[in-house]
Amino acid sequence: MISMPEAIDMVLSRAPVLPVESVPFRDAIGRVLASDVFSPRPHPPFPASIMDGYAVRSVDCPGTLRVVGASRAGAPHDTHGSVESGTAVYITTGAPVPCWADAVVPVERIVTLKENTNVQIKVDASYKPGTNVRAVGSDIALHETLLFSGDVIGPHELGIAALAGIRNAETHASPRLAVLSTGDELVDPFSFGDVSGDDDENEPKRVASGSIYDANRHMLLAMAVEAGCVTTDLGIVKDDPLALACAIQNAVATGADIIVASGGVSEGDKDYLKQVLLGEFSFDGQPDTVKGAIHFGRVLMKPGKPLTFGEIKTNTKTVLLFGLPGNPVSAAVTFALCVKPAVRRMSGYLNPHPPRIHAVLGHDIVLDHERPEYHRAVLHWPEGTVRDVQDKVDMTLGNCPYQVNLGTENLPTAISTGRQISSRLTSMKGAEVLLELPKGPGFCGKDTRVSALLIRGELGVSREMHMGRVRPVVTPAAAPTANHGVLGAAVAKTAGVTRNDSSCDSGKTRRRHGEKPKVITVVMHEMVPALNVDELLEESTIPDGERRVTDDGNDDGFAVLSAAIRVVAESNETSNSNIEGTWQVSQVFAESGTSASLATTIRHAACTSQIVLVAPSGPAGVSSQAAVVVGTDLGFPGLADRMWHGIEGVVSGDDKELNLKELADKHAGAGVGVGQVAGCVVLSVPPRNAYHAIKSGVQRMLVVPREKWEGLVL
Ligand code: AMP
Ligand code: MG
């Protein structure tokens, strides 16, 4: 599965910048300029008054002046050159200053001496030439570059063009984007009932049992308009290959540059979109099947894993097709992260990516174990940012308040929009950013600095405002100590959630079985030298002190680790393909090999694994057996000569205590303990021949779905 950054790169590499066309400036809002715009005339085009007052010769001031006329905005004074000295002209803001005058005295600075036809004014102060006069071209010089190629035309840019009298803009064309929703369950909420039928014409169509309203199409069309597209609504399409093929052909025929479909790209038996795009169906009597290509069909991200991207070539161009997941949040997030950048690249944006800023978390966020997450959040900006920063300005940096804005104290605080399940569209309400969170385990704590992609508002659209990606601190720090061949991505898969042991309580976690990653965690530790067995037993807090030790023990945790890796590799190769995902192995170190330390580590590891294997500690692995008992809700020491007997007893859920006790007595010292905690099966591994023990005991669990473990008879 490719990563989201890789997916975005691939999309952008295939999104062509659209041709340039000349459009009236006032129709070009949201478009990107394809060439620089120069001013064909200066502004102001004449010397203009800045104030309401009197146009004067500066050499006449101070003095008493005779008012000989008026120059109003749009009605200049008709003086053609020669006017006696000692005269003034009444003038309004923006009116042309007569050619003989060189300053304007504000109306509030003069005293009117005579009214009616012969008006005189008294000016008390002196005025320099140019006072209160905007010189020709002082706002915009002749031939000045007003707008640059790559600028996005907004209201202000339109105003500038209008002021300079520029009618047309050379811009890149707007992408034409067609949207369709797929799904037999979908009903259009905005199509109204028939008056003659049962439906009320003022009410949306009723949804039959099993149906839902189509949210995606309306949302995606609106997002496309906002992104600057010309849109086509292709309606709801049934989960039927022919209907889908026709809809896609239809979209191509309408001249679409981009087709956005939602739904139908997961693993269900009616998710046909990928096959249709690849032309895998032939339709009797129908002229065309679609002949496209798929560049990716799954992305390592949350939400949005089924995101699909392909292309359809026509005689004249290549149409991009995005198959967004049907869950509305996934559709919205993948549109923002993948489709919108493609739209922007095609529209000519120099930087098509959403602006990235930094924020600090307002609370802990638990990380997803398998996929990096784009977590929806709102931003709270610190109050009085500029004043606070100005107080702290280091003058050696220059008196610029923003230069010191490097810490986290002036960053916005990101607050999650709540439960992030991809069907809960209300988690998009008000969302301003997608926090870029790494995959877990663990969590990002309150006050951690994270990067955030802006998905709403214009902040940061300026090319200079993009900040780097932040690798946030994850707690607890994953310990990538696996230099002993742990399966690639499994490194550091497991870490204890040390802050909140109760989160691993069996009752709570039982609900989360399905969410746990398919991980076997090997608990490793330093060997604890024990002077004698009695001492070891005492320290191991085994409830039942009677124990026969028959083996010398083996503290080589790495032998267990590599045995687990072998077993998992074999299982992954032969695994039933219906079972999603492969197993991985991880390791975690306990502080020491004491049963107490091991038990704590087991409980933490159980939060993020389905199986925990405890490497042997002490002679016959007795400390690790004890740790299984102490660290689990349901645990039995020394259960079996073969590990799978132990598993049978625990996972079948039957009341086998008596039986297990017998087994325990019989096989005490064989080094196997077994228990369950937080929905996780925990086993201590025998000191000898770890590979065979793990293989016989664990391998079958790896190839059946987790739900079936409860009834598994090994
Ligand atoms: P799919 O990707 O087709 O398997 O759909 C995944 C989930 O999203 C299902 O629960 C669908 O009912 C739901 N869904 C699919 N399309 C839409 C839509 N246009 N609006 C709202 N929900 C949808
Ligand atoms: Mg569907």
Task: Supply database-style keywords.
22% strand, binds magnesium ion, 714 residues, 6-stranded mixed β-sheet
Give the arrangement of secondary structure elements:
Layout: E1 2-3, H1 4-13, E2 20-24, E3 37-38, E4 48-49, E5 53-56, E6 63-71, E7 87-91, E8 103-106, E9 110-114, E10 120-123, E11 133-134, E12 145-147, H2 155-163, E13 168-172, E14 176-182, E15 186-187, E16 212-213, H3 216-226, E17 230-237, H4 241-253, E18 258-262, H5 273-277, E19 292-296, E20 299-300, E21 308-313, E22 318-324, H6 328-347, E23 356-361, E24 365-366, E25 373-380, H7 385-391, E26 413-416, E27 433-437, E28 443-444, E29 449-454, H8 506-510, E30 519-524, H9 533-539, H10 557-574, E31 584-589, H11 595-606, E32 611-614, H12 622-631, E33 634-636, H13 643-651, H14 657-667, E34 674-677, E35 680-684, H15 690-702
Parallel strand pairs: 1-20, 6-7, 14-17, 14-18, 15-16, 18-22, 23-26, 30-31, 30-32, 32-35
Antiparallel strand pairs: 2-13, 3-12, 4-11, 5-7, 5-8, 6-10, 9-10, 19-21, 21-22, 23-29, 24-28, 25-26, 25-27, 27-29, 33-34, 34-35
This protein binds adenosine monophosphate (AMP) and magnesium ion.
